[in-house]
Amino acid sequence: MPDSIVNDAVAATAFRRLLQHLQHRTDVQNVDLMGLAGFCRNCLSDWIQEADKTLTKEQAREIVYGMPYNEWKARHQADATPDQLARMKESVAKNAGSH
What we know:
This protein is an all-alpha fold. 66% of the residues lie in helices and 0% in strands. It starts with 7 loop residues before the first helix and ends in a 6-residue tail after the last helix.
């Protein structure tokens, strides 16, 4: 997709809305996001860090999670089930070549 389809201001606004949505939906586990969409909050934080080389991994994750990552994990992250892990593995395999 050419970059010119969505200008930077629109893309930034939509991305901020995505972050708000993910911060609100703490019931949605990263393993479920990975299993369905092939990306999760950690992927977004990695992409932010790649785009802004001045950020640490922890800083990028705090942008995405809205709080320190360890705090989010303690509050909201549940243990993944074997079913969730299997779906994630299958979904991630479809990502080959997309990065």
